[in-house]
Amino acid sequence: MKAKRQKHSGAFKAKVAIEALQERETLSEHSKRYGIHPNQIARWKREFLDRPKKISNSCA
Length: 60
Fold this sequence. Notes:
The chain is built from four helices and no strands. It is an all-alpha fold.
C-alpha cells in the first residue's frame, strides 16, 4: 500500500525551521519528534534562510 504524502502548513514549516536553527537539538531529534525526515527539515532550514517569507506563506 502506498503511503500518502504529508502536507504541512507554512506556519508549521517555519516553526520547525526556526527550532532547528536554534540548534538545541539535532536534526535527528527534531525528525523523531515531528515524524519528518531529517533531510526535509534541512531543506526547510535552507528555504527559511534564503527566503523567510516564502516558507511562512506557503500552503503546501
